[in-house]
Write a structure and sequence with these properties.
The protein folds into 3 domains: 3-49, Transferase, Pyrimidine Nucleoside Phosphorylase, Chain C (Transferase, Pyrimidine Nucleoside Phosphorylase, Chain A, domain 3, Up-down Bundle), CATH 1.20.970.10; 78-153 and 174-324 and 430-440, Nucleoside phosphorylase/phosphoribosyltransferase catalytic domain (Pyrimidine Nucleoside Phosphorylase, Chain A, domain 2), CATH 3.40.1030.10; 330-419, Pyrimidine nucleoside phosphorylase-like, C-terminal domain (Aldehyde Oxidoreductase, domain 3, Alpha-Beta Complex), CATH 3.90.1170.30. The chain has 16 helices and 14 strands. It has helices at 3-11, 18-30, 35-48, 52-63, 91-100, 120-124, 136-146, 159-170, 177-190, 211-227, 250-260, 266-282, 289-301, 304-315, 351-360, 405-413; strands at residues 78-83, 105-110, 148-152, 195-202, 231-238, 246-248, 334-338, 344-349, 377-380, 387-388, 395-399, 416-419, 429-434, 437-440. Bound molecules: uracil (URA) and calcium ion. Calcium ion is lined by residues 88, 90, 243-244, 246-247, 252, 255, 268.
Length: 441
């Protein structure tokens, strides 16, 4: 078999055989295919598409390109969550202890953030002592004892995806539904959980800009997951603006704790409860979506979810004292109010630009070697539909780099469209996709 012939075949719009897909993924994993040929095939796939069978087989081949985590020593149904990537998306920090407080096993492997979206691991490392480099044995032990654990994704999960993702990133071939679905699902399937909820973001801050594309991706991932014997559901959620108020690491931890204290931003609470209700249903712990949702709300009001979070921090080596005193988290030397350029209603927010502004303040990294400033970030005081005027701050910047404030302010203010007319608040949760079909919300 020759990679040249596979490129030619896909270039001409034909369907690739399982053997051809396997040859490609083996070559990528072993490094025997040149980057330029791999990139050419990715572009052919991008332009010509893949059908469902090709996508499913591509996912399987990528999943088996590395380690398959064996979680069979964990008793009961193991659940996991994945987001296609959002700005200020604090949901995992709330979701994991919330669901685990019902005794549902939340075994999460997570990656680090790159670019304008932050990773859950980076956020938790804002907590003094918090350790994410567990061995698989420790990870399993924690989940068995406390129903919750988080570890950094081991290097050897779906290595073919690492190579392909790196090439896609520099060849304008990221936003193809078959390539996104196989990339996400290969990693989730290799990580070994039984039930997966996917948060598929749509809107200005997401890869996918239209509802139709988000729906197609959701259906594809649900089919792949269910086809591989895992319960899989997808929630399509709006990313027209950052989630919650905080975009940063330490300040997102605070925001998560606020929701766990039954306070905090309404949108973050709603999305977390929606994702959690689907996991609770798939874990067989409730008879209906409504019952699952109510059960989780009760975990917030009773303080059980917060208690589980405290345990979670402790077992991962962190000091939980910040839960009562947020000043124990890293603090920024500069706290700056940001005012709108004019009065009116916020009509639109380019979320990715807000993410980049937060990164400029120090909250993110552009390369994997960059150091994160855990104290840095942006707190949004106004969101879509809110009225702003020139005397009232619309946001607060936190940073330790005074010389970055002006650059971040320019980037941040450029992200906002302010109009004279009132604008409705966007609907957050748009639909839930399962093997039964699509439920519009
Ligand atoms: N997240 C992934 O892991 N892969 C993609 O292709 C897109 C988002
Ligand atoms: Ca947030």
């Amino acid at each position: 078999m020759r990679i040249y012939d596979i490129i030619l075949k896909k270039r001409d719009g034909k369907v690739l055989s399982h053997e051809e897909i396997q040859f490609f993924i083996d070559g990528i994993t072993r490094g025997t295919i040149e980057d330029y040929q791999a990139a050419a095939l990715l572009m052919a796939i991008y332009l010509r598409g893949m059908d469902e069978d090709e996508t499913l087989f591509l996912t399987k081949a990528m999943m088996h390109s590395g380690q398959i985590v064996d979680l069979s020593r964990i008793q009961g149904i193991k659940v996991d969550k994945h987001s296609t990537g959002g700005v200020g998306d604090t949901t995992s920090l709330v979701l994991a202890p919330l669901v685990a407080s019902l005794g549902i096993k939340f075994a999460k492997m997570s990656g680090r953030g790159l670019g304008h979206t932050g990773g859950t691991i980076d956020k938790l490392e804002a907590i003094e002592g918090f350790k994410t480099s567990l061995s698989v044995e420790e990870f399993i032990d924690h989940v068995n004892r406390h129903a919750i654990a988080l570890m950094g994704q081991t290097r050897n999960i779906a290595p073919a995806d690492k190579v392909l993702y790196g090439l896609r990133d520099v060849t304008a071939t990221v936003d193809n539904i078959s390539l996104i679905a196989s990339s996400i699902m290969s990693k989730k399937l290799a990580a070994g959980s039984d039930a997966i909820v996917l948060d598929v973001k749509v809107g200005s801050g997401a890869f996918l800009k239209t509802y139709e594309d988000a729906l197609a991706l959701s259906r594809m991932m649900v089919n792949i997951g269910e086809g591989m014997g895992r319960r899989t559901m997808a929630v399509i959620s709006e990313m027209a603006q950052p989630l919650g108020e905080a975009i940063g690491n330490g300040i997102e931890v605070v925001e998560a704790v606020e929701v766990l204290k039954n306070r905090g931003p309404e949108d973050l609470r709603e999305l977390t409860l929606t994702l959690g209700a689907n996991l609770t249903l798939m874990a067989g712990r409730a008879d209906s979506y409504e019952a699952a949702y109510a059960l989780l709300e009760e975990q917030l009001t009773s303080g059980q979810a917060l208690e589980k979070f405290r345990t979670f921090v402790e077992i991962q080596g962190g000091s939980p004292d910040f839960i009562e005193d947020y000043t124990l988290l890293p603090q920024a030397a500069h706290v700056v109010a940001v005012y709108p350029p004019k009065a009116g209603y916020i009509k639109a927010i380019a979320s990715n630009e807000v993410g980049i502004a937060s990164l400029i303040l120090g909250a993110g990294r552009e390369t994997l070697e960059d150091k994160i400033d855990f104290a840095a970030g942006i707190r949004l005081k106004k969101k879509i539909g809110d009225r702003v005027d020139k005397e009232e701050p619309m946001a607060v910047f936190y940073t330790n780099q005074e010389d970055k404030i002006e650059e971040a302010r320019e980037r941040f203010l450029g992200a906002f469209e302010i109009s004279d007319e009132a604008t409705p608040r966007p609907v957050l949760v748009k639909a839930v996709v399962s093997k039964e079909g699509v439920k519009k919300l």
